[in-house]
Amino acid sequence: MKQLVQTFLTIFVVAFALMFLTSYLNSSQGYSGGNTLTVYNWGDYIDPELLSQFEKETGIKVIYQTFDSNEAMMTKIGQGGTTFDVAVPSEYAISKMKEEDLLLPLDHSKLPNLKNIDSRFMNLSFDPNNVYSVPYFWGTVGIIFNPDLVGNLKFESWNDLWDKSLRNQILLVDGAREVMGFGLNSMGYSLNDTNEDHLQQAKAKLNTLTPNVKAIVGDEIKMLLANEEAAVGVVWSGDAAEIMDANDKLDYIVPKEGSNLWFDNMVIPKTAKNIEGAHAFINFMLDPEHAAKNTEYVGYATPNKEALALLPKDISEDKRFYPDPEVTSKLEVYDNLGKKMLAHYNELFLEFKMHRK
Ligand code: N2P
User: Fold this and answer.
1) Distances (CA, A) of 200 to 187, 206, 207, 215, 335
2) What mean pLDDT do residues 208-234 have?
3) 152-201 pLDDT, tens digit each
4) How far apart are CA 83 and CA 77, in angstroms?
5) Which residues neighbour 353 within 8 Å (Cβ) at sequence distance 6 or greater?
6) CA atoms of 163 and 209, how far apart (whole Å)
7) Which of 45, 64, 173 to mutate to test the pocket of ligand 1 (most atoms within 8 A of CB)?
8) What is the domain count for the chain?
9) Residues 149 and 126 in one domain
10) 352 Cβ neighbours under 8 A, 6+ residues apart
11) Are residues 83 and 57 in the same domain?
């Protein structure tokens, strides 16, 4: 009898452990069951209080996962086996995901808050009529610097990064398009250039920046720059805003040769399981109060004009982070360069990273 009880107990414990493991593995792969919603977003890109508020208001449990580059996100969604309900790609990634048939068309009747988005951010060329995507945040890529640590150097050009005084002082965002992009821009080429000669020249030039590069990092770039562990960073504008919030000595510029203007957008991948919940979540994020709260927390520029009106003027009128259309019209949006060319940009970026080792 004792042995029978023991056998039952063992079976029970093993079954319970298996159940637990399956549910853990499922959720880590983005499988949502029941009334759950799996959201796949960039790191540090949402106010977590909004997630709890959404859960409370709708009874939907959010499984939240993050990525740190469009490339990583596209690979994960593209290889299948996941059920992300909402993702937040940038424009060129949306165009590529459309091409690869990875996105579901949105039902605009379920997104009444879409009316809050400034028309300047609607109907852009990567998604005419916003069939697949709605704007989340937008911004630029530029140079953040600490005037106390850079002597008399005045930043206005990408080429200032090569100044000899900046040895081991620069942190770079870990993005292939961003780094290759400023390499190309620094030579007067477009950040969408596909000419092999130009690409090789840009990589060779980036290699000569190596002595000045302290590290190529992800979201920790904000903490490192705010703590003055490095003097200069190449960052996305919203990260610069957040760093400057923590340390107001620093300043941010968009170099005169030009730079990247980007738009991140919410989409519903084709593998989504909770399509109703995905629309509810997107509409929730488009609500002016929610979008304003998110903007204050994240530090990036909101495309939501009703949210912008709710923000303090020191945020909404800061031209470094809300540049006027005359300025943005001179910047370049990343083109979808096609699968092969995007892979080539990644390769060249990897080679540059290896060169540092
Ligand atoms: C936030 C990343 C912003 C991404 N940590 C810019 N596309």
Assistant:
1) 12, 10, 11, 22, 19
2) 97
3) 899 999 999 999 999 999 999 999 999 999 999 999 999 999 999 999 99
4) 8
5) 216
6) 9
7) 45
8) 2
9) no
10) 179, 203, 206, 207
11) yes
166 and 209 share one domain: yes
Question: What is the 66 CA–ligand 1 centroid distance (Å)?
Answer: 11
Residues 150 and 299 in one domain: no
Identify the residue whose C-alpha is closest to ligand 1 atom 2. 42
Domain co-membership, 26 together with 94: yes
Compute the distance from residue 45 Cα to the ligand 1 centre, in Å.
7
Written as one letter, the residue type at 119 is S
Domain range for 82: 2-138+263-323
What pLDDT does 11 receive? 53
CATH of the domain at 93: 3.40.190.10
pLDDT digits (tens, 9 = 90+) for 117-144: 999 999 999 999 999 999 999 999 999 9
Residues with CB under 6 A from ligand 1: 42-45, 90, 219, 236, 262, 264
Instruction: For helices 91-99 and 70-78, give the axis angle rounded to 10 degrees.
Output: 20
